[in-house]
């Protein structure tokens, strides 16, 4: 299953539209304008909140709490490495590895591929393609992409 994530460019806060392979709307993501740390809410096509990604502030490395249907399911933690980007989804047991350019990631659980993430280079706003092995993992994989995007954004603004 593939999902396509596109950031809305002219917006005061983070906004993403998540589409299916056929172009239908699957999820909408909205960030809070005034909050300490990043906070993103994921809504399904019917407008029901399905997930929330919140940055844990006052942390040495980027950390994000993930809530799905009101229940904390994971904490996405960036690991310290020099030449790769590595994250871990505590609670899910997922390992996320990215290349040096930070545009391609693979999510794995015990060596089994959960999803591939590809960020498009020459796009207006952030655009991601998410190739997920099992549709049951779609919402969790989407929250991982959102956390990584926030971590890259906060990392680039700090430097």
Question: Brief description of this entry?
Answer:
It is built from 1 helix and 12 strands; from the N terminus they run E-E-E-E-E-E-E-E-E-E-E-E-H.
Which structural traits does this protein have?
159 residues, 12-stranded antiparallel beta barrel, 13% helix, Porin, mainly beta, 1 helix, 12 strands
Strand order within the widest beta sheet: 1-2-3-4-5-6-7-8-9-10-11-12
Biggest pleated sheet:
12 strands, antiparallel, barrel
Report how far the terminal alpha carbons are from each other: 36 Å
Which overall shape is indicated by the principal axes computed on the Cα atoms? globular
Estimate nothing, just give the exact number of structural domains: 1
Summarize the helix and strand pattern as letters.
Answer: EEEEEEEEEEEEH
- Percent helix among the residues? 10-25%
- Poorly predicted ranges: none
Radius of gyration (CA) equals: 14 Å
If helices are DSSP runs of H or I spanning 4 or more residues, what is the number of helices? 1
Task: Round the mean pLDDT to the nearest integer and report it.
Answer: 86
Structural class: mainly beta
Total number of strands: 12
CATH architecture: Beta Barrel
- Give the CATH superfamily: LURP1-related
Description:
With 159 residues, the chain is mainly beta. It has one domain: Beta Barrel (Porin). Helix content is 13%, strand content 49%. It is built from one helix and twelve strands, in the order ββββββββββββα. The chain has a twelve-stranded antiparallel barrel. The radius of gyration is 14 Å and the shape is globular.
């Amino acid at each position: 299953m593939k999902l396509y994530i596109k950031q809305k460019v002219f917006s005061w806060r983070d906004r993403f539209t998540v589409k299916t392979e056929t172009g239908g709307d699957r999820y909408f993501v909205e960030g809070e304008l005034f909050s300490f740390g990043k906070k993103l809410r994921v809504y399904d096509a019917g407008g029901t909140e399905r997930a929330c990604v919140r940055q844990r502030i006052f942390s040495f490395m980027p950390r994000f709490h993930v809530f799905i249907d009101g229940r904390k399911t994971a904490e996405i933690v960036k690991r310290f490495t020099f030449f790769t980007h590595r994250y871990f989804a505590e609670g899910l047991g997922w390992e996320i590895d990215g290349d040096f350019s930070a545009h391609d990631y693979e999510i794995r659980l015990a060596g089994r591929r959960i999803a591939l993430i590809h960020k498009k280079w020459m796009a207006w706003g952030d655009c991601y393609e998410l190739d997920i092995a099992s549709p049951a993992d779609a919402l969790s994989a989407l929250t991982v992409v959102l956390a990584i995007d926030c971590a890259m954004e906060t990392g680039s603004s700090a430097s």
